[in-house]
Write a structure and sequence with these properties.
The structure is a single chain. By secondary structure, this protein is of the alpha+beta class. Helices cover about 20% and strands about 20% of the residues.
Length: about 110
């Protein structure tokens, strides 16, 4: 498979890991959009949000809890942060492997696009 996130999950490409368990890996984005920019990636290869099925519900709930935990450890919980998942080409998704951006550490505006 030629998926960059699958290669990171498999250890073929190095990353600055903040968290890893059997289902997820979280690491710093190499092209950060803010002082804190963490990618939270399910190890299961799903191309996008559009590929989720009912059996993925628990996994997706864990994403929110993991993002909350990482936001706390990065000092963002009180100040605020953004959790974003882009889906598909028009949604701005660049890597076709479902992932979530945890972004914070600066004042963001209310514009989403």
């Amino acid at each position: 498979m030629d998926c960059v996130f699958c290669k990171i999950v498999e250890g073929q490409i190095p990353s600055e890991k903040l968290f890893e368990d059997g289902d997820f890996i979280a690491f710093r984005d190499i092209h950060p959009q803010s002082p804190v920019h963490v990618l939270i990636v399910p190890k299961l290869h799903l191309a996008s949000l559009a590929h989720l099925k009912p059996e993925h519900e628990k996994l997706m709930g864990r994403v929110i809890m993991l993002a909350t935990k990482i936001a706390q450890s990065e000092g963002l919980a009180i100040r605020g942060y953004r959790l974003v998942a882009n889906s598909g080409a028009e949604g701005g998704q660049v890597v076709p492997h479902l992932h979530f951006h945890l972004i914070g550490g600066k004042q963001m505006n209310d514009k989403m696009g």
